[in-house]
């Protein structure tokens, strides 16, 4: 029979492991909880107008993606930043993009054929390098560059918009802060202390005065509407808000209304 004092001590050990161990695991494993690099399974779906694009980041990491050339030159351009589990060739190949626009999509570090490992700092710096490379191209109109972010990529697109001259911003399933999202999903963890990749988009929104199109899914279980709305409310420029009915986080981009709104927004830029 275990003595009461010994039993008490064993429960204290279990409690200490739970209190200290779970946050320690969350601290060490957070990259695997945030980033889900995807391989390139095929390129057969890309249109004939698509050519490979390589951008060398500031630390000489090579980022790989595609540029789907618009039918006019110099063309207005969309620079697309995808979700945390997205290989972006599929969005680049979407047939509902307006054909006079050039579509640029590079995979994040560690995704597709891009080198390196993803982190908040690296992805933010890479996004600025991608913008700068595209703005220098003779076949792109630098005065008509729109940045487009989906899910994780909305925080990245918002930062580019705050740092570079863009003609507009499209955000699908935006958020104000990854910390705020983490608190909603893991209320029993000290997220604000543990999270290294914070993607604080609110400050970028407050200094962004270019037009914004924000689209959210009616039934989004990943990014709650209040997180999207907080970012939208902070946006300093002209903005429009649309809720896509009968859509969830992963099906938002399949909606015909979604693409109708995107085409209308781009036509006005």
Structural summary, described in words:
With 269 residues, the chain is an alpha/beta fold. It has one domain: Alpha/Beta hydrolase fold, catalytic domain (Rossmann fold, 3-Layer(aba) Sandwich). It has helices at residues 4-34, 89-92, 120-135, 152-163, 178-185, 191-194, 202-206, 225-234, 256-267, and strands at 50-56, 62-68, 75-81, 102-106, 140-150, 168-172, 212-219, 239-248. The protein has an eight-stranded mixed β-sheet with strand order 1-2-4-3-5-6-7-8, sandwiched between helices. 39% of the residues are buried.
Features:
single chain; 269 residues; alpha/beta; Rossmann fold; 38% helix; globular
The CATH H-level homologous superfamily: Alpha/Beta hydrolase fold, catalytic domain
Task: Quickly give the CATH architecture.
Answer: 3-Layer(aba) Sandwich
- Outline the biggest β-sheet: 8 strands, mixed
Derived from helix and strand composition plus strand pairing, the structural class reads alpha/beta
Distance between the termini: 78 Å
Instruction: Strand order, main sheet: write it out.
Output: 1-2-4-3-5-6-7-8
| Number of distinct beta strands | 8
Determine the fraction of residues in helical runs and give it as a percent range. 25-40%
- In the predicted model, the low-confidence regions spanning at least 5 consecutive residues are 6-22
Q: Give the CATH class.
A: Alpha Beta
The helix-strand sequence is: HEEEHEHEHEHHHEHEH
Overall form: globular
How confident overall, as mean pLDDT? Answer: 90
How many structural domains are formed by the residues?
A: 1
Count of helical regions: 9
* Rg: 21 Å
| Share of β-strand residues | 15-25%
CATH topology: Rossmann fold
């Amino acid at each position: 029979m275990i003595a009461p004092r010994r039993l008490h001590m064993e429960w204290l050990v279990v409690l200490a492991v739970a209190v200290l161990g779970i946050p320690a695991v969350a601290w060490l494993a957070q990259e695997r909880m945030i980033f889900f690099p995807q391989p390139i399974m095929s390129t057969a779906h890309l249109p004939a107008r698509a050519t490979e694009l390589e951008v060398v980041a500031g630390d000489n990491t090579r980022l790989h993606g595609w540029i789907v050339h618009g039918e006019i030159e110099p063309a207005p351009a969309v620079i697309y930043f995808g979700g945390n589990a997205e290989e972006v060739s599929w969005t680049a190949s979407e047939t509902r993009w307006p054909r006079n626009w050039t579509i640029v999509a590079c995979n994040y570090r560690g995704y597709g054929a891009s080198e390196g490992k993803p982190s908040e700092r690296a992805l933010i710096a890479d996004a600025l390098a991608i913008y700068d490379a595209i703005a220098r191209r003779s076949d792109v109109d630098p005065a008509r560059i729109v940045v487009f972010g989906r899910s994780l990529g909305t925080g990245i697109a918002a930062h580019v918009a705050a740092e570079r001259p863009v003609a507009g911003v499209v955000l699908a399933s935006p958020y104000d802060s990854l910390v705020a999202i983490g608190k909603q999903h893991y209320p029993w963890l000290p997220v604000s202390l543990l999270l290294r990749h914070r993607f604080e988009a609110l400050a970028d929104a407050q200094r962004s005065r270019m037009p914004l199109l924000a689209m959210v899914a009616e039934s989004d279980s990943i990014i709650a509407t209040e997180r999207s709305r907080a970012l939208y409310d902070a946006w300093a420029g002209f903005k429009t808000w649309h809720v896509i009915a009968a859509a969830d986080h992963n099906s938002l981009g399949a909606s015909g209304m979604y693409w109708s709104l995107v085409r209308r927004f781009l036509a006005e830029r």
